[in-house]
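Reading a protein record of the kind used here takes little practice once its layout is understood. The fold follows as a row of integers, each naming the local backbone shape at the matching residue. With these conventions in mind, the following record can be read line by line:

_____
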Amino acid sequence: MNEMQDKRIVLGITGGVAAYKAAELARLLGKAGARVDVVMTAAATRFVAPLTFQALTGRPVFTSLWDAPQENGMAHIDLSRGADAVLIAPATADFIARLTHGLADDLLASLCLARDCPLLVVPAMNRQMWEHPATVRNMAQLRADGVSVLGPASGAQACGEVGEGRMLEPAEIFDALRASFQPKLLAGKRVLLTAGPTFEALDPVRGLTNSSSGKMGFALAQACAEVGAGVTAIAGPVALPTPAGVTRVDVQSALDMREAVFATVPQTDIFIAVAAVADYRPAAPAAHKIKKGAQTLTLELVANPDILAEVAARPDAPFCVGFAAESRNLAEYAEGKRRAKQLPLVVGNLVQDGLGGDANVVTLFDAAGAHPVPPGDKLTIARAIVRHIAEMLDAKN
């Protein structure tokens, strides 16, 4: 599914140094099949030449109310009619202030006021400008007016300072725009999920773990957030960026993960147990590093709690989704897990098809039977899983 194919996007560019990033954004949009009309403020043209965007989009670039090549001389009306979204990236503090107060003193500000489609803004400014009370008030008003705000990020800025106010990267903006076109299948739902491996300490430097990357769990967190859910992801030790709109809680061991889950599950509508939780942990972790000695080492292990089974057994249990990563007999083991834990849905896969990688092959097991999902990257697979969950909730209701 390509949400961007044939979409009409008005890409507004204002006069900040981050305007150079908009060139890559325009390229990504065009590559995805969108038709992009670029509108630049006068200040933006001082940073990047309009010809750059004309070359990238294959379409004329609009810079002024007075010379826009429209037959009726109303580019501010015509550009927004039929557009699927207006995206301002970068959006400077000055432009945000003008937008907040409904000024229409140039082409971009005018079409934002005259639009009949969603407006998304990507702030980019110095950290002190972003933190200034005037900007804080303006951003609050924009959100209250229904404008979607993407970012900003925190990091090194062109001025040499470090802090919040940095424009999101083009790929992040593209993903957020694409997500905005997703149907809000889980709007108002609260999703709790676990992701990644756990680490069970043997001593202060060693432990038992597995090769789970957390990619499937984080893809599901992103997919749930895209369709309107409030998402909390409890993550084992993984080095992955947190998807936009997702609250992240980092843990190490299975016991840590259990504690974090049970602190949140009472406020949860859907629980998705993606994490590869260790089945066992050392009975007595050493206080100091275990030194090399004998040729063999005997470890006493005790069973970890089954977090998913405990959640599913609660009288107030949310809609529970389990994962079964098997090396053989997938249908037998996955369906057996679903029945044993009385789960409405289990996602099964063979470890050789997806563990630690970027792609996956899964089958969904529910009371109606087995539903194979076409192979794909993990985000595509995650979106298919979320659609199936939404369908099951609709049928239940």
